[in-house]
Amino acid sequence: MSRRLPRPRRAAGPRGVWGPLLGSLVREKFFMGGLIIILAVALMGLLAPYVAPSKNFLATVGPPNQPPSLKYPLGTTGFGQDVLSQLLFGTRNTLFVATVAALIASLIGLALGIIGGFLGGAVDAVFNFLTNTFLVIPTFTMLLLVATIVKHPSLQLEAIIIGAFGWPWGARAYRSFALSMRNRDYVTVARLNGMSGLNIALTEVLPQMLPYIAIMLVMTLNGSLMADVGLDAIGLGPGNTITLGLMLNYAWGWGALVYNWWWWWLPPVIVIILVATSLTAVAMGMDRVFNPRLRGT
User: What is the spatial distance between Cα 110 and Cα 13, in angstroms, rounded to a whole number?
Assistant: First the structure.
């Protein structure tokens, strides 16, 4: 009669440490400051259909190139469109693309990194070769090429394109973490108890990586945001809609910088900087809490 080996206690199991970690996150100034700003910007985008002065953000609502006033709080574009309405809907669309792209990239990177790193052997060799291949390819160049071929993709397709090329660095990081976990005592005991490699990876290793995954997801979101803004700002974004990058593209294309129509390009720049720096602050705060060396334990 076979006996199942007792499972040793994990050194840092997620169930026992999540409570103190979440409490530490709430007290972390970088994390909370960044999170509050991100939520405020996201709420602004979500409420766009209800609070925007003009629901049709591409429609002409007044004279062109009007500076901010009581009637037009952020002025009008060179086509007489309301800048505030474009900013609200543009924030909504940009955050949608960046979020979907970050989720796609994280799922691909996580699957390849954790399965390859934990299983090892031929599977790891193939996944690692694929990861290294994508790492040496200039990501933004590939995005430019694909976006040029597709020509004005929809928001959903743009998110898929960005996500499909945004996973290699995450996959490498997840693989390194999985390699460090594969020889832990509780993993060895799980093997001896007959659990399959994939089952161990999903039920034993993955939960240990949750704090690390959260940090990587925030960093990937920041990268996806910059990729989306970059593509849209050079005119390869979606057509017949508005994003923060498209606002910059239209402003630069129609001489807003030359003629000092600052109210056309400055608002999207401020929102982009706010979101990017807030995401960086959130990632820093999470790292200070989740990284044992930084929290001094």
Answer: 19
Q: Looking up tokens 């979907």, which residue turns up?
A: 100
The amino acid present at 200, given as its one-letter code, is I
As a whole number of angstroms, the distance between CA 71 and CA 134 comes to 50
Residue 9 has pLDDT above 80, yes or no: no
Those residues whose C-beta lies under 8 Å from the C-beta of residue 91, and which sit 6 or more positions away, are 41, 44, 45, 48, 244, 271
Q: Where are the alpha helices (DSSP H) in the chain?
A: 14-27, 29-46, 48-51, 83-119, 121-136, 139-150, 155-164, 168-181, 185-192, 197-200, 210-233, 244-253, 262-290, 292-295
CB atoms within 10 A of CB 85: 24
Residue 16 has pLDDT above 90, yes or no: no
205-219 residue pLDDT tens:
777 788 888 999 999
Averaged pLDDT for residues 96-111: 95
228, 237, 211: which is closest to 272 by C-alpha?
228
Helix (H, G, I), strand (E, B) or coil at 76: strand
Checking if the pLDDT of 6 tops 60, the result is: no
Q: Is 227 helix (H, G, I), strand (E, B) or coil?
A: helix
Per the CB < 8 A criterion, the answer to whether 283 and 218 are in contact is: yes
Give pLDDT, residue 1.
46
CA distance 114 to 172: 9
Cα–Cα dist 273/167, whole Å: 23
